[in-house]
Structure formats: C-alpha cells, structure tokens
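Researcher: Structure for this, please.
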Amino acid sequence: MTETTENPGSTASPDTLRDLLTDQLIEQGNIHSKPVEAAFRAVPRHLFAPEVAPGKAYAAESVVATKKDEHGITVSSVSAPSIQATMLEQAEITPGMRVAEIGSGGVNAAMLAELVGEDGEVVTGDIDLFVTDRARRFLDATGYARVRVVTADGEDGFPGHAPLDRLLVTVGSWDIPPAWMDQLADHGRLVVPLRMRGLTRSVAFDKEDGHLVSRSAEICGFVTMQGAGAHKERLLLLRGKEIGLRFDDDWGADPEALNGALDTGRAEVWSGVTVGRGETFGGLQMWLATAVDGFCQLSVDAKLDTGLVAPQNRIACPAVVEGGSFAYLTVNRTEDVPGEPVFEFGAHGFGPDGPAVAGRFAEQIRIWDRDYRHGPDPVIYAYPAATPEEDLPQGRVIPKRHVRVVISWPQEGQGIQHNPTKEK
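Model: Predicted structure, token format:
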C-alpha cells in the first residue's frame, strides 16, 4: 500500500508530499497517463492553498475552502486532488491545445498550463473578483504568468478565446449554455460537473454535429454555479424540518398530498440485491434517477433525526414520490462473507400506497442488478433545447433552460416506467 498524505501535520517536505499524493492517485486509478502524472508532480499545490498546512493541501480527498458566504456555506474552493486528476484525464489534453477553465482556483489552471506546454494557451475565469485576484497572484508567484485570468460570468464562456479545443468547468452546473458548445472547436471536448435529477457527474462531452455526446461520466461534487447559470433545488419539508425531499428538475409533488404520509407506518421491501463494503454503486443511483418518475433526494437533519426514516445516505438518498406516498433507498446488513460485511438494498415506503411504491422501487433495484450493474454505463447527450422530440435519441429526457439532456442506457426500455421522451 502506498503511503498517503492524509496527516495535515506531516513534517515531510512539500516535494515529498507532492510525490506521495501523485503515487496515491496513480494507485487509486485517478491518474493513468504520464502527462497528468507529470503535471501533478510539477505544480506546487500547497502554494495555491496557503490557508492550510501542506499535509492538508496534498491530501487526496481534501477540499480547501477559500471563501464562504454569510451563512458559512463554501462558495469557492480548491477542489480535491482526486477529482482534479479525474477531470484532467477525462479531458485528454495534448500539447499545443487552446484550453479554458470556468471556475478559477489557480492550481488546476497551472496543471492545464503544464499539459498544453509553451505552444498552448490557457485561460481561466470566475465571476468573483476575489477568486480571480487570488488566482492571478498565485499563478504569477509560481511561474505560470502565461495563464490568462479573466473576471466574467461563466455563462458566457470565453468569446475572445474561441475556438477552444477543451473547456473544463470546475463548478457544479445545472445547465449547458449555448456559448459553451458554440465556442468549442469541431470535435472539441467539454468536461463539466453536470447536475441531472439531483445527481452530479463529471461528464466528458464531445461535440458532434451540433450536440454533445458523453465519453465518460464520474461521480463528483462541486460548489454550485453563481450568476446567470445558478439554479436552486426545490425543497419539500416533512415532519417539521426533520426530513427533506429535494427536487432538482421537476416539482411533481403536491406538498399537501404528503400530509400525514409519515403517520401510516413504514413499509419495508427487500430486493435480494447485495453490495459489499467499499463497493461503489453510483450506477444504481443513476439508474433510479432515469427509471422512475417523481425522482428526488431525501435528506435528514442530523440534529432533528428521530430515527423514523433509515435512508442509505442521510445527506442525499435516492427517493421517489407518487401522489401522497413516497419511498427511498435503504440498506440492511446481512450475513457476512469471511472478513467482509454484506448489505442488502431495499426500499422503505410511507403513505397510503407506501408498500406498492416501495415494491416498485425495489423492483427497479433488481432490474439494475440484472441488466445494468455489470454492463456499460449510459450515454449522456445534450441537445439544444429547441430540438424536436423526434430528433432525440431514446432515453430519459431532462429538459433544462438551454439544452435537453438525454440519459440513454443500453437496451433502453426494460423496466422504464414512463414514456422516456415525454417527460416535461
């Protein structure tokens, strides 16, 4: 096992910490190419995050908050090295490219400069002057003065720097504005943390014939977009403020219809599908978001938690609302295999139709396990919002302001509970 840099008080030198971090990211699979490895070994990350000790700056999953709003919510940060490495690998940047970044912490722009070399161009921008001033200062101090820094709303992209071979967005985005696609060169690539039905994935999109087609999608989390591209979820509170249902795209729930749903008792339906500790199941989350109408995310206030609900994740758990009833994903520890715990997926339902809703949710878990768990990931498309439905590929259509996102699974149709191109 490679030594890691998780100890913020480490007395190792920054150079040693940087090499340890890079070795760890290679072992974890976040880095798999020599150019990205070289960029991580070259850029003095700690100098872009003076708010924390070097050991913290070089921790693989460490996010360094650089600015918070009046409520204490982080609005700007230096992203975790693991997701930065993942996105750089997704981008597949080569020397001489013209690359832009929306969301400017400085360190990622420095690595972009390493990847494009002296013959390439890098521009990084942010809507917040505090962020861009900070990035400019650190880039100059670390030898990356050639990176251009602009202060502007990312919704407009970088019209003075198009066409772009690559555009990386390092803030969470709900939509894809026209400028991003228009400013890409033919067959250019956009890498963006795109929020789809409450789930955020770093999607590498290639531009093809006026639309975007995904090449990869990875689980991630980012501070949300500010300015014209900002988009807030809608929150439905239950049992005072203990339980929340968060809707990203649709507001299909009738708040009044769910009154009393939590007084009906909890229905439990188990799927027979199991998962081991440490095994990822992001594909299940995406499948549930694709397969059911009324999809949302359930969260529980830790300070008010009475134990009435037991979601798989108390911060953001896949859930579904049908009329006056809802169900959510849960897990239960079953018999262990030698040395490893095993958990079974299931669904808890509340409301007059809670047992039936939970049963349908559990059936979708079985469908994912049978048809998609070990198969290829879905392809994600983004078409201009005015594209007629007959010109869209089959799949779950997610209407947004500027684009229509389509999530298309192989052999689309098995178990889908709706006409996938008719969601409004």
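Researcher: Any notable elements?
Model: The longest helix spans residues 354-372. Confidence is low (pLDDT under 50) at residues 412-424.
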